Amino acid sequence: MFNIDRLYEAVAAKGHVCVGLDTAAEYIPSGERQKTASDTEAVLAFNKAIIEATFDVCACYKVQIAYYEEMGVAGLSAYAKTLRYIRDKGGLVIADIKRGDITDTAARYANAHFAGEFEADFVTLSPYMGMDSIEPWFAYAESEGKGAFVMMRTSNKGMRDFEYLETGNGRRLYHAVGDKLAAIAAAHTGKYGYGAFGAVVGCTEKEEAAEIRRQYSNLFFLIPGFGAQGGAAEDAALLLQNGNGGVVNASRSILKAWSAEIANSGGDESKATNTFAGEAARRAAIEMRDAILKAVKN
Question: Which pTM value belongs to this model?
Answer without folding.
Answer: 0.96
